[in-house]
Amino acid sequence: MASKNINVLMSLVDNFSAPMQKCSGKMSDAEKQARRTANALNSFGSKMNNMAVSAAKFGAGLAAAGYAMAVAGIKQLADQSVEAAKVQLMAETQLEATLKNVTAITERGAGAVEKATAGLKAYAGELQNAGVIGDEVTLSGMSQLAMYQMTDDQIKQLSGGMLDLLAKQKGLNATQEDAVAVANAIGKAYSGNVNALSRMGIKLTEAEQNAIKFGDANQRSAAIAQILQSRVGGVNAALAQTDMGRQQQAMNAYGDMLEEIGKKLIPMKAQLWGVFGSILPKLQGALLPVMDKLYAKFEAAMPQIERMAQMFADKLPGAIETVANGILWLIENFDSIIDTVNTLTPVLAGVVAGFAAFNIISTVVGLVSTVTTVLGGATTAAGLFNAVLLANPIGLVAVAIAGLIALLVAVWKNFDKIKAAAKSAWDYISNIKFPSFPSFGGGGGEKPQGNAMGTPYFSGGLTRVNERGGELINLPSGSQIIPHDLSAAAVGSRSQNINITLNVAGNVIGNEDFYNQCGNAITERLTAALANM
Fold first, then answer.
1. pLDDT value of residue 77
2. Residues contacting residue 127 through CB under 8 Å, at least 6 positions apart
């Protein structure tokens, strides 16, 4: 039984081992997936956190921008409100001031003007709500009607027709100036000038003209109101029913709000200006002494400034003349300058190229020597250098100049020795006892004859020549002396050329001895050539 049980158990184990292994594998995969999911969630959480931080920063930026915009918006609103209030208050003030001059209103007694003004202001507001024209425009028209001694009742009677005529002519764009013009035409008609309305496009019948001409004040205002109603009545209200009219009404309401805000701000600004005005005397007292000191410094500096200005003024004409002359010279000699440039350009280009080539060769010769040494030895390098040097004739000039420079450098370095040697030589020459010659003047000897003018037959003896600064020569009798002008003409009549040939072979760069030899050779040849001319 035990063996059988063991076999059954082993069989069960075998049957379950494979599924269990699969399950274990699945669990392992699930565990890995869970870890990946956790990592993904952590990453997502980190990103969300970063997004939250960024959003917070963005929100803070928006808040700051919003705050700045809000501040700017508040200031703009305040400015607009103050300006709107100024316009409204100006229209109200003008109306009240004009009503004070209407006799029929002032006769009512104290407070009549203020009451009339308040009534007309309220009526202007009603007309604004019914139409498209703002109350500040209406108030300006009412003020103009009052100029014709109309009472507040007569003004109310005519204001509706006035706005209809204004809306007919200007539509939504009526201004205070437009209202004044229309009210002025109505006022003239009220005063008996019936043709004033015809200029506004309203033709009157004879009966209407007579009603205006012969009626009293109330009859005239009533007649004109009836004429306006029959011609343009309802235009203002009709415009208010259109889409554009509704927008205009909203803008009028917004304008009223700004006016009320501005009426609150204006007294505040006035108080602030009053405070500022109270400190102005102290500010002035502090600034004036400083300005006095500055002025004193300026006054002290004025003489120097004037001298500088005068010096500048004195120099300016000369500077202008110099510049002008230079410009004129350039203009006059422009063709010659161009010809000279064209002539010298190839010559200068060759010289520059020669020296440039010499400098380049001097710099690159080390590299050429290195490369050619690898290729074939130092002799090849010297040959290359000589070939390039001889290919450019300017190179020979460069070598000669280099030798002369080296000679000058040697003289400069040994100048003290040369100076000492020259001094010794001069002392030696000064102590030489020359044979006695006749004195040149003031010494008791006879002065030698001068023959600057020349002579065909010299008597013989000492005479003076000036070949090298004043020599004496002893000529035999019968010698011919040619004067200087004829001598110069004779010498100048034939061409004298000095040709010195300098052949350079081999690498002489850095050879100071060679430069010295070249300099000595050139000097000797020049000396010999000059002596034979």
1. 83
2. 133, 135, 138, 159, 160, 163, 236
